Amino acid sequence: MELTIDDRTIEANRGESVLQAALRHGIEIPHFCYHPGLSIAGSCRICLVKVEGVSKLMPACNLSVVPNMKVSTVVPEVGRAREQVMQFLMLNHPVDCGICDKAGECRLQDYEFAYGPPRSRSIDAKHHKRKLHDLSPRIQLDNERCILCSRCVRFTREVSKTNMLGIVERGAHAFVERVDPESDDDPYSDNVIGLCPTGALLSRDFLYQSRVWFLEPVRSVCTGCSRGCSIDLWRRKKEWRMRALGEERNSMLYRVTAHENPEINGPWLCNKGFDQHKLMSRERMLTPMLGDAPASVEQALARARDLIAQARSPAALVSALASNEELDVFKATLGARFRVYAREDAVAEPGEVVEDEFLIKADKNPNSHGVRERFGWRTLTAADAQGHDLFLVWGDWGDYAGFGRAPVIHLESFARQRDRHADVHIPLSTTFERSGTFSNFEGKRNRFDRVLDKPPLVQHAADVFAQLDAELAAPQELREAS
Amino acid sequence: MKDGPGDADAGALREQFDRLRTGYPSQMSASLVLPLLQIVQEQKGHVTPADAHVVADYAGVPRAQAIEALSWYTMLHRQPVGRHVVKVCRNIACALRGSDRLLAHVEKTLGVAPGGTTADGRVTFLAVECLASCGTAPVMQVDETYHEQLDEATVDRVLGELP
Amino acid sequence: MSGQRGQDVHADNVFMSFAVTSDSHTLDAYRARGGYEALGKALRTLRPEDVEAEVTASGLRGRGGANFPVGSKWSFVNKQSPVVYLCCNADEGEPGTFKDRWILEHIPHQLVEGILLAAFALNVRHAFVYIRGEFDLPLRRLRAALEEARAAGLVGDGILGSGFACDIVVHRGGGAYVCGEESSLINSLEGKKGYPRNKPPFPAVKGFYGAPTVVNNVETLANVPWIVARGGAAYAALGNKANPGHRLFGISGHVNRPGLYELPTGYPMKKLIFEDAGGILGGKPLKAVIPGGSSTPVLTAGEIETLTLDAPSLQQAGSMLGSGGLIVIAEGTCMVRLLQVLTRFYRHESCGQCTPCREGTAWMDDILARVVDGRGEAADVASLRAIPEGILGNTLCALGDAAAMPVLSFVKKFGNEFEYFAANRRSLNGDRLEA
Asked: Mean pLDDT of all residues in chain A?
C-alpha cells in the first residue's frame, strides 16, 4: 500500500507501523524507546506525528499503516510536541556530557540539538538520582542520565530472558535497577550498553578510555563460537594517532560493538563477543624459534622445509580458527603433502555457557565448517599418531607428548610456557591482522577486515604455506623418491 | 495480626497462598502476585524483597515482576510499620473540609510527621490520597476502618482507643 | 456511612429505590424488591444479543468518567472468541467520587446481577471485580453478597437452573489511582505494575491475558438490571436525550449537605448545589465548581448559571461530566493552594511510564509547592500555563490529561491569584481552604 509522509509517497506493508515504514525508506522520525528487536513501549513520546483527520498526535511506533494515510512531521504542532518532550526529558538530566562516555554517539544529545528548545524553562534545582555505579562487573549505570525508555529492561525480559533489569518505584521516582543481584550475570548483558540511547549504561571496560570521535569501527567476525556474529572492532583513527599517546594507545583495540547482521546475529552479541578485543592482551609469539632459541624467518622456514622434505608420513593438524582463504591456500599448496587432521582449537571454559537457544553454540571455534568442507573431520587418535613421522601443528596447541619423538613444526600466534619446544616455531598473524572469511555452523560466510598491522616478524599462514610449497619438490616426486 | 520484622511464617503463609489460588482460574497464577504480597503484609506488616521472591516463585512469574510490583503499589510497606496504621486523606474534598487542620492535629498528638512511626511502635501515620469518602469529609482510615466526618475530638477518641 | 442524606426514595429510581436499613443490602431484601428477576427473565426468554440490544437502546454511557456508549463497547467484542473476560472496575479513585462505594455497600446484589447480565450478553465465563485495596466495608459487603449468591445458585455453574455459568472473582488493588484506567487495571490484574497499555489494540479486541475483555464501571453495570427489567427505551426516556439515565451524583466540598443524590441527567447544576445540597456553608457566595471529579476543568460561579448535569451542557461550557462528582468551592478559598493539593495528587499517582506525565506532573507540583511555600518567581505562572500544553494529548493514557486540565483551568480562570502569590509570596486568600 501507499502512504504519504510529508511530501514523500512511500510503499508500506500491511502490519508495519508508520515508524517502521519511515525508517525503511530512510525517513527520520526520532525515537528512543522503539527498537526493531524489542516489543513496542510507546512511552518516550518523541515519535509523535500528525495524521490527517486525527485530532491528537499519534506515536508513529504504534501506528499501523493504512492505505493513503497522510502523515506530517514538519507541521508546527509536531515540532512543538518534540520540543516539549525534549524539555521534559532534559528537565532533571545532569547534562554531564563533558564527563560522559556516550558523548558523540548519544541519541539524547543528537535529538536535543535537533529538536529541543533553545533553553530550559525550569528554574528549579534538578532532582538527583544514583550516579554512576556498578550494575555488574561489566556495566555501570547512572540513573540520572537514564530517560526510562525501558529498552534495557525489555531486552533482559524478552531477548536474553534473564529478567536481570526492572524499573522500580512509581512516577518520577522510577529508576532502573538490577532486580535480583543474587542471580547469575546475564551472558548477553552488554547489549544494553549499545541499546541505551543515553550515557546511563556504560561499559566498565571502555570507561574513560577514549572519546568516540577519535575512534573508527572496522567490520570483523567474533571468533568465540561457530555462530560467528558480526562485530565492529574499534581502533583509533589514523589522523588521531599522536606520538604523545604512546604506541599502545595508538594501536590498541578499544572496544567491540555488535554489527547488525540479519542473517546471523541480528543486532545482538554475547558478552564473549564483546570481549573479543581482549584477545589482543594475550602475550604474542613475536619471533620465529628453532627449539627454544630465537631465529630469523629465513632460518625457520629453511628448517621447516627440510623437515617436510625428509618426512615420509607427515601429519597436519589444521586450525578451526583459520580463515577460509588460508585453508584454501593450505589445501592447494603445502597441504597436499600431508594427511590432514582437524581439531577444535578452543573448547568451552568452566563456567562458560556451552550452548543456548539464542546465539551461543557449543563449538567454540569460528570456522569448523570451513575445515570440514575442505578436509572432512578426522581427529588424530593415539593410534594415528604412531604412524606419523612429522607433525605440522597449525594454531594453538598445548604440549607435544602425544607426538612421540617425531619432529614438530608449530605455526601459532600466542606465546606459551613450555617444557618441550617444537623443532620450529613460526609466529602467525591473528584474525585482527588480516582479512578473510569464516563459515559459520550453518555454512554462512562472514567477512572480517584487517584492523591491526601485524608485528614485523610475524607471518601470515598463507604466505608460509605458499613459500614452503614453492621451495619443495612436487609431492609425486617425493613419493617416487621414496 | 502482625508479627515483628523478619521472615514471614512460611507454613501459615503457604496455606493462605493455596486457599487464595483456589479462587482463581487455574491458568492465572500470575494474577496472584498482588494478592499474595497483600497476604504477606497482613501477616507481618510489611514485605521484603525476599518475600517478593517467594511470591514470584509461587505465582510462576519472574522475580523481577514481583519486585517491581512491590515497589509500585502505595499500600505495600517495604519497611516495618507500627501496630496500627493511620491514614489521613489530604486530597481535595477533605482539604476543603479541614484535613490540613486534622493532619496537624494528628502530628501533634502522635508526635510524628506523616510518614513516621511513633517511638513506641504503636502507630504509623500516613497522609494519603482520596479514599472515596468525599461526601463525609474529612476522613481517615485506621487499619481497615474508615472514620468519617472527623473533627479533633473524634480523632482524639479514635486514636486514644487504639491498643 | 456515605451519601443519601434526606435523599428522596422513588420506586422508579435505578439505585435509590428503597430506604437503607441495616439489612437492605442482603439477598432476601434485594429479592423482595424484585432483585434477580431481570436475570431470570434474560436467562429464560432472551438471547445474549437481546440483552446487548437493550443496553444499546438505553443509550447508557460509561459512568467511570469516559462516558463511552456501553452498547458500542460491548459490540466491539467478538463473542465467538474462545474466551471473553469481563472486569468490573471498582477502583474508585477520582477525587470527589464516592458513588461506586455506595453501590458496593448498599446494593451489592444489584451490581452482581448487572455483572451476570453483562456476562450473559458477552459470553463471559469468568468475571472479575477489581476493587480498590483501601475499601473495607464495600469489600466485605461484596464478598458477603457473592457468598449468598453462590449459595442461591445465582453465581457459578447452571445459574438459576439454566445452561449459563459464570464465576465472579474479587481482586483487590494495591493503592494506585491509575489502575482505574482500564488497560492499567488489566495489567494489574495480570500481576504486574499497573502501567497502562498502548492502544490499539483495545481491550475489547486484546485485553486480559490477550483475550477480548470488557472493562465497565460499577455504576455502569448496576444500571443493567433496571434496563433489562423495564427495557432500554424506558431508560432512554430518562433525563437528557444525548446521554440519558439516572446518575448517582456526588457533591462535596463547601456545601451544607454533601453526599450522593440520584438524579436524572440534565438536572440543573444550581438546583443540586443550592437546593438539594443546601447551598454553601455559612451562606457564603459560590466561587467555583469542579463538576465531574478533580480531572475536569474548573468552572467559575458565573459559568454555572444555566448548566445542566449532562455531557453536552458541560462540554459546551468547556468542562466535562466526568465521574459526576461535584466539588464545590466557596468564596475566600485560595485557588493556588487548592490546585497544589491536586498537583501533589497527580504527581503521586503518575505511573512513570511516559515522559510528559512522569516529568510534567512532578514539575508542575514542584512549582506550585514552591509558590505555596512563599518562594514563587515571576516565571512560574507562565510555566504553569505552558507545561500542561506539553502534556495534553501527548501521553500514553488519560492520566496526563487529567493532571493537565486542572492546572490549565485554574490558572486560566483564577490567574490573578496565581500572579499575586508568585509576586507577593503569599496567598491572596490567607491560605484558606476551609469555608
From this structure: 95
Selecting from A168, A180, A183 the residue whose C-beta is nearest the C-beta of B71 gives A168
The answer to whether the CB of A50 falls within 8 A of the CB of A82 is: no
Examine the pLDDT at A482 and tell me if it is beyond 50: no
pLDDT, position A187:
96
**Is residue B33 domain-shared with residue B97, that is, in the same domain?**
no
Task: Kindly report the CATH number assigned to the domain that includes residue C385.
Answer: 1.20.1440.230
Q: What angle do CA A64, C204, C225 make, to 5 degrees?
A: 155
Q: Do C231 and C259 reside in the same domain of the chain? A: no
Distances (CA, A) of C19 to C8, C12, C250: 9, 13, 18
The answer to whether A143 faces chain B, any CB pair under 8 Å, is no
Q: Which residues of C touch A127 (CB under 8 A)?
A: 362
pLDDT in tens, B44-77: 999 999 999 999 999 999 999 999 999 999 999 9
- For range A24-50, the mean pLDDT: 98
The chain C residues in contact with chain A (CB within 8 A) are 176, 198, 200, 347-356, 358-363, 366-367, 370, 377, 379-380, 383, 386-387, 389-390, 393-396
Q: Residue A109 region, left (φ>0) first, then alpha (ψ -120 to 50), else beta?
A: alpha
Sheet containing B140-142: order of strands:
B123-128, B84-89, B140-142, B145-147
Max CA distance (Å), chain A: 93
If one counts the domains in chain C, the total is 3
Identify the pLDDT of residue C348: 98
pLDDT at A468 over 60: yes
ipTM (interface predicted TM) = 0.95
What pLDDT, in 10s, does the model give residues A394-449? 998 888 888 989 999 999 999 988 889 999 999 999 999 999 999 999 999 999 99
Residue in B closest to A164 by C-alpha: B64
Whether the pLDDT of residue C203 is over 70: the answer is: yes
Mean pLDDT across B127-146: 98
Out of B67, B72, B74, the one facing A179 most closely (by C-beta) is B67
CB neighbours of residue C218 within 10 Å: 29
Q: Averaged over A205-223, what is the pLDDT?
A: 98
Distance between A170 CA and the closest CA of chain B, angstroms: 5
Give the separation between CA A227 and CA A221, rounded to whole angstroms: 9
Residue B21: which CATH number? 1.10.10
Is the CB of C190 inside 8 Å of chain B's CB atoms? yes
Instruction: Find the CATH number of the domain harbouring C271.
Output: 3.10.20.600
Asked if the C-beta of A392 comes within 8 angstroms of chain B's C-beta atoms, the answer is no
Distance between B60 CA and the closest CA of chain C, angstroms:
11
In C, which residues are within 8 Å of A174 by CB distance?
Answer: 352, 358
CA nearest C198 in A: which residue?
A: A42
Q: What domain count does chain B have?
A: 2
What's the DSSP call for residue A201? E
Contact B134 C252 (CB under 8 A): yes
